[in-house]
């Protein structure tokens, strides 16, 4: 095979594409500023669906973010807590890791997990050994790529570090006030 200028240009182009396909998804999957932290709505959210809302962010990366509203009542009396406006018929059980299943998404740095699905949510009430701490939600809060970052830049939310007592042992009616008095989280340092 004769090496030509065109072959070299094609090879360099393919190499650049390969680097992008490996590097870019890695960058998108990296945890972002609110990952495994708590969002607290500011006065800029007043009057909207997230007015005085406190949300535990389960995932925040370059693809978007997902979290559970911690302090809003169920949509219907006797139902699971309202986790947010996305997938309001889907169940998410936030729980301590003393009980888990194959479907549990574990968050080791918080010593928590969440299990998707109605079966686990319904089953938990009759379990012999229940998780020490758990909350059952219907729905979740979701943000597309860059959306939460723009809302943070627009001062619609403040970010505080995860606080187990706030999440599991603070009354939903008092949670927003309690969260607004907590110190802001330090910026996360991501690897290059």
Task: Tell me the domain tally.
Answer: 2
The CATH top-level class label of the largest domain: Alpha Beta
Backbone shape: globular
DSSP E strands, number:
9
Helix content bin: 25-40%
Q: Oligomer, anyone? A: single chain
How would you spell out the order of helices and strands? HEEEEEEEHEHEHH
Radius of gyration: 21 Å
- Unreliable stretches covering 5 or more consecutive residues: 22-29
Q: Which architecture of the largest domain would the CATH scheme give at its second level?
A: 3-Layer(aba) Sandwich
Judged by helices, strands and strand pairing, the structural class is: alpha+beta
CATH topology of the largest domain: VC0467-like
Largest sheet: 9 strands, mixed
| CATH superfamily placement of the largest domain | VC0467-like
Q: Calculate the mean pLDDT score and round it.
A: 87
Ends distance: 39 Å
Task: Please count the helical segments.
Answer: 5
Estimated share of beta-strand residues: 25-35%
């Amino acid at each position: 095979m004769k090496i030509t200028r065109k072959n070299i240009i094609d090879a360099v182009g393919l190499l650049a594409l390969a680097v992008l396909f490996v590097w870019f998804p890695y960058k998108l999957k990296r945890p972002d500023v609110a990952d495994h932290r708590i969002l607290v709505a500011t006065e800029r959210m007043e009057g909207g669906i997230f007015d005085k809302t406190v949300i535990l962010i389960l995932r925040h990366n370059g693809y978007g973010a997902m979290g559970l509203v911690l302090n809003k009542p169920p949509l219907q009396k006797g139902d699971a807590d309202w986790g947010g406006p996305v997938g309001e018929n889907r169940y998410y059980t936030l729980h301590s890791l003393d009980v888990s299943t194959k479907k549990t998404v574990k968050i080791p740095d918080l010593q928590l997990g969440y299990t998707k699905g109605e079966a686990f949510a319904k089953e938990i009430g009759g379990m012999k050994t229940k998780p020490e701490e758990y909350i059952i939600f219907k729905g979740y809060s979701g943000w597309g790529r860059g959306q939460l970052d723009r809302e943070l830049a627009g001062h619609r939310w403040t970010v505080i570090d995860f606080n187990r007592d706030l999440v599991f042992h603070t009354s939903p009616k008092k949670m927003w006030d309690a969260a607004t008095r907590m110190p802001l989280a330090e910026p996360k340092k991501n690897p290059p």
